[in-house]
Amino acid sequence: MFYVVAVISESASSVVMVNNAVIDVTPDGGHQWYQYVNAAGDWTIARHPVSDGIGLRVSPGPDKTLPKESYATYVLVVAQHKWQRTGQSGG
């Protein structure tokens, strides 16, 4: 059983739901849903504004040994159903 731990509204029609095992995304108001493995596990996933697409910022959870400023950003390429890493902090 999976429980949603975060709902991230990207726009009026794009929503990301995150839990500890999967990331569910709809780019079209819920008509189609895509599911991705949440490899981040116990990391924090938050909205990351991008000009085109759906962006997420993945940061270490409170029990990680990495600096709090550490994060990576990803953008979903909807047409290919793939996340593309677009940036990373210096930590």
Gist?
This protein is mainly β.
Write the layout of secondary structure elements.
Elements: E1 6-9, E2 15-18, E3 22-26, E4 34-37, E5 44-47, E6 54-59, E7 72-77, E8 82-88
Antiparallel strand pairs: 1-2, 2-3, 3-4, 5-6, 6-7, 7-8
Describe the structure.
With 91 residues, this protein is an all-beta fold. The chain has one domain (6-88). It is built from no helices and eight strands. It has strands at residues 6-9, 15-18, 22-26, 34-37, 44-47, 54-59, 72-77, 82-88. The strands form two sheets. It has a four-stranded antiparallel beta sheet, with no helix packed on it. The radius of gyration is 13 Å and the shape is globular.
What is the count of structural domains? 1
Helix count, DSSP H or I runs of 4 or more residues: 0
**Main beta-sheet strand count, sense and barrel state:** 4 strands, antiparallel
Q: How far is the N terminus from the C terminus?
A: 34 Å
Oligomerization category of the chains in this entry: single chain
Structural class: mainly beta
Give the helix level as a range of percent: under 10%
Query: Can you write the helix and strand succession as a string?
Result: EEEEEEEE
What overall form do the CA principal axes indicate?
globular
Mean of pLDDT: 80
Low-confidence sequence ranges: none
- The neighbouring-strand order within the major sheet is 1-2-3-4
